[in-house]
Design a protein that fits this description.
By secondary structure, the chain is an alpha+beta fold. Helix content is 24%, strand content 27%. It is built from 10 helices and 22 strands. A 6-stranded antiparallel beta sheet has the order 2-1-22-21-16-18. Strands 6-5-11-12-13 form a 5-stranded antiparallel beta sheet. Strands 14, 15, 17, 19 and 20 form a 5-stranded antiparallel beta sheet that branches. The longest helix has 38 residues.
């Protein structure tokens, strides 16, 4: 209840979390910092947020966008195509190809999940006493110890021995994957629909080719002799197509497969076996019935009984029902993103699943100027207030940009504008990024900034003033403007600078003050 109802301010001091101790407080500590990250980036609850307009007219934070170096446009998750590069197990980090993952049904052959709680099962070792057979000399049997292994969950204490699973003789390798009884029927259905699709494709191609031939013959000449020759050719072509052995074989095999599937199809019937009296007289064993989540984790079999031994179910209504079994862990994928327009790679991760590095990552945060809100005033309805915005230059070169208001036609398409904004009319220049600039205090001396326009300047950061006037008495304060600057592609060599016009949407928070008209009325 606390995690759902707690509200932490966006300017929360992280130093308060140093007093947190204990396991329960650790989760509270994680929640606090997640909450801080949401409020700083905008969570839709009135906190300040900044979003950039994508080329597909959607808006997203700069950290969720890519900048295509060939199209020189922003791309969101809808403007990119995803390609699976490799499959890997999230627990043992085993990498496999697409063909191998398809054979293993997209599951790891060594790691298993607990069917009761969903955590990863651990391999436990045990010893079993066994006796050697009597030798020919008649010597006595000597007991020996045999090493056996079984799976056990460290969270809920579920084990494979609870469902009478035999122990393994090797530590590596999980339990074999059981095939569903409907696997063969599903394979036949897939084969049938594939054949039907091929036959329909062939018929469409034949219709298109015959239509093209008729149009060409009609436009070439209207001579009756040519029409007669074409009719004769069509008549001679029909028996040849009908006598094609490959097509007739395919049709006959498809019909045989369809007849076989119709025989095994399920038929609705009103005859059913009545329930036994034990369903009404015996107490309901809720602790032995599997939950809906446990059944859906194994869709092929959907076990009914929970983790109990078969001997405990003798005489009950659950006798003979399928019980919980270990589920092999589902594989994860490493994907690369491509631009839909030019099909160039925007993000390519490393093949090693244990590495978080990327071979190529054209995230917009590394190439586009980023904005932050430096100063927030107390907004009043229909009154001008001065706020300060900070622009950060991630590039190594100096960037000169101009701020422009939205055109009237574009502003009408954005119904979320609830404030008027006045921007600086002069061109602003931001220095390039330099890692040694934080030790240099002479950055602002080479610019003669106007104090009424520039709030402060430091390294590759520049803060400037804007005027805001809310047009709504209640609700969030939203405004947008255009950022114009010249950008040079970082991938294409000897490329010319491109003029970019980027729309940026700001949400400065909620209206907290009382409107002037209401004060006068009171």
């Amino acid at each position: 209840f606390f995690l759902d109802s707690a509200v932490i301010p966006w300017n929360y001091d992280p130093g308060e979390t140093r007093k947190i101790v204990g396991r329960k407080d650790f989760f509270l500590f994680i929640f606090i910092f997640k909450r801080m990250a949401l409020t700083k980036s905008g969570d839709g609850r009135g906190s300040p947020s900044i979003s950039f307009a994508c080329s597909c007219t959607t808006s997203a934070p700069l950290t969720h966008l890519f900048l295509c170096q060939h199209c020189i446009k922003l791309r969101c998750t809808r403007c990119v195509t995803h390609e699976i590069e490799s499959y890997y197990c999230p627990y043992c980090l085993e990498t496999m190809s697409s063909a191998e993952a398809k054979v293993k049904k997209n599951r790891c052959g060594n790691c298993c999940d607990c069917p009761s709680c969903g955590h990863t099962l651990s391999t436990m070792a045990t010893s079993s006493a066994s006796t050697e057979p009597e030798t020919a000399s008649g010597s006595s049997e000597s007991p020996t110890s045999k090493r056996l292994y079984y799976l056990r969950c460290a969270v809920c204490r579920w084990s494979t021995r609870d469902v009478d699973k035999a122990d393994k003789e090797t530590a590596s390798g999980g339990f074999p994957i059981e095939d569903s009884p409907a696997t063969e029927k599903v394979a036949k259905l897939v084969d049938l629909y594939r054949r039907i699709a091929n036959m329909e494709k062939t018929e469409r191609e034949q219709k298109i080719s015959s239509r093209r031939r008729s149009l060409l013959n009609y436009t070439a000449s209207l001579d009756q002799r040519l029409l007669n020759m074409r009719g004769a050719a069509n008549q001679s072509r029909v028996p040849a197509m009908a006598s094609d052995p490959s097509s007739s074989t395919q049709v006959s095999s498809t019909e045989d497969l369809l007849v076989e599937l119709e025989k095994s199809a399920s038929v609705a019937s009103s005859d059913y076996q009545p329930l036994s009296d034990s369903y009404f007289t015996d107490p309901l064993p809720l602790e032995t019935v599997s939950t809906l989540e446990q059944r859906l984790s194994d869709v092929a079999f959907q076990p009914v009984c929970a983790s109990v031994r078969a001997s405990d179910l003798d005489g009950s209504c659950l006798a003979g029902q399928r019980r919980l079994v270990p589920q092999h862990k589902v594989l994860c994928t490493r994907r690369l993103q491509r631009c839909k327009q030019c099909e160039h790679i925007l993000n390519k991760p490393d093949n090693n699943p244990s590495s978080i590095k990327t071979r190529l990552q054209l995230i917009a945060l590394h190439y586009m100027p980023n904005f932050r809100i430096a100063l927030l005033p107390e907004f009043r309805f229909n009154e001008w207030s001065k706020a300060a915005l900070t622009i950060l230059n991630p590039l190594n070169d100096n960037v000169s940009f101009t701020l422009m208001n939205l055109p009237e036609g574009e502003k009408e398409k954005l119904p979320l504008q609830t404030a008027d904004i006045e921007l600086p009319t002069s061109q602003l220049t931001v220095l390039g990024r330099d890692d040694t600039s934080e030790y240099d205090d002479t950055d602002g001396e080479q610019f003669q900034d106007d104090p009424s326009v520039i709030y402060r300047r430091k390294a590759n950061r520049l803060s400037f003033f804007v005027q805001l006037r809310p047009t709504n008495a209640i609700g969030p304060v939203r405004a947008s403007f255009l950022l114009c600057f010249k950008y040079t592609s970082a991938v294409q060599k000897a490329s010319q600078p491109v003029q970019l016009r980027q729309r940026i949407n700001f949400e400065f928070g909620e209206m907290k003050s009382v409107p002037v008209s209401s004060k006068a009325a009171s």
